[in-house]
Design goal:
Blueprint (H helix, E strand, L loop, with lengths): L6 H14 L9 H6 L8 E10 L15 E3 L4 E10 L4 E3 L5 E3 L2 E8 L14 E15 L5 E14 L2 E11 L8 E11 L20 E7 L3 H11 L2 H15 L2 H24 L1
Antiparallel strand pairs: 1-3, 2-7, 3-7, 4-6, 5-6, 6-9, 7-8, 8-11, 9-10
Amino acid sequence: MKKQTDGDILKFLVDYLWKEMSDQSSNFFLPKLLSSQDISYDPYIAGDWDMGALPDSTNTVCTINFEPGTCIGLPTLQLSDVEIKGLYNLQPTQGMPEVNDTNVKATLNFCTLPMGTPYVTSQYITVTGNYLYSQLCKADNDEHQYITDGRGTFTTYIFEAQGYGDMDIVPDPNDPDNKLMVIMNEMKMIVNSTTSLNLCNAPGAPKNSNICISIQMDSGTSYNFLANKAANYKTVSDTIISKINEKLQDPKALKDISAMLTKQINNLAENLKEN
């Protein structure tokens, strides 16, 4: 390999690897490559997410467990023990990556591989965890303030999504044989708000919602409708996608994927050289 990566050779390698990533019988099948890493990203333990203030409040919350009261400000939402599944349900699109000199841009599809496919743990991207809805209230009788909390669990389904990756593939300056090195610049998930699948059964969300959030409150059924309505505000689903993308863009995740792709593109180059 030349000191400066030859564009034609690089495009050939990228296109060849791209096709192999869709082949379940190939050693380069993408879910297999992703699952071979030292750190698991499916399921991915994402920790706790502060979702901030919700866009609307209702005085009903302040009367569930107390004397009649009035909301003060907006409620807040916190998610904890968040776990993400389905990130290995990923395959290349039919279109080839865009190769420009040493830069490669690629788009992939989530959620298109059926259950039963090797290394696929979930048909859809699934986000689960604990849910805490908090509202500051003021009692109507004596105006003392109190906080009413609704606690439970949540499940989020993302039915359709695309992945986007931007990387540079260059000769490794520290390798005497000038093997290739992949540097991931960006990884993100792209999700539209609606889908034609009509699978969402969460209260407060339309059937064609692409991001479907359902809540089961420990505090009792009186909270369930309000909690589900709050969970399906667009600001909540937008924040969930933003939080997932923060994890994908984490330097450790970028480094891990860079190392995996570096290993695989050099393995492919060696295999092709031998054959």
